[in-house]
Amino acid sequence: MFGLEPSFSAKIALEKFKKNNVKHIIELGAGLGRDTIFFAKNSIKVTALDFSSTAIETIKNKSINLGISDFIHTQVHDLRKKLNFKEDSFEGCYSHMLYCMAFTHSEIENLNDEICRVLKKEAINIYTVRNYTDADYTKGIHRGEDLYEMNGYIVHYFSDEKIKKLLKGYKNLSIDHFDEGNFPRKLSLVINQKI
Fold first, then answer.
1. CB atoms near residue 50 (< 10 Å)
2. CATH number of the domain at 8-194, out of 3.40.50.970, 3.40.630.30, 3.20.20.70, 3.40.50.150?
């Protein structure tokens, strides 16, 4: 759906991770692994989680075929549930458009708390969300809060203010806006650091 090349946000994330000497990250909602593979090829260990067992199997196969399986560990996981890792397990977290899946604000807060729990002190959490300037915002069937369904797909949209409400346990380093795809989707790239 999104192509095979690493996303713009993954390229920015890699720069930030390298600058902060991050060697091991957790990636949430890894999909078919285009960003997972990119990080692994750049010597960052990735623990990749996705709800889809098919997606996880695809990542596993790609990592074996590319000879980078030592850098990638995978797990099928429902992110509405507690993460299966101890506190202070990772130096960074990355997720591309995961927060804008069909999660309620309460579920996002719980997930954000779980990410904070498994990150080491001063670790970096980088995520992207579709924002209020996106052409699909308020279109389709309203599903409560800032959730809208179009073509059977529910998207949760974010304002900068809403992003800043997710700073419990973090300090915000930056919020940048960018376009992705032909549509294009209007996204916010958020970089937070655990305090």
1. 26
2. 3.40.50.150
The pLDDT tens digits along the chain (195 residues) read 445 689 999 999 999 999 999 999 999 999 999 999 999 999 999 999 999 999 999 999 999 999 999 999 999 999 999 999 999 999 999 999 999 999 999 999 999 999 999 999 999 999 999 999 999 999 999 999 999 999 999 999 999 999 999 999 999 999 999 999 888 999 999 999 999
Among 26, 169, 8, CA closest to 85: 26
CA atoms within 13 A on the CB side of 50: 23
Query: Residue 146 and residue 157: Cα distance in Å, rounded?
Result: 5
pTM score, whole prediction: 0.96
Whole-angstrom Cα distance, residue 59 to residue 56? 5
The domains of the chain are located at: 8-194
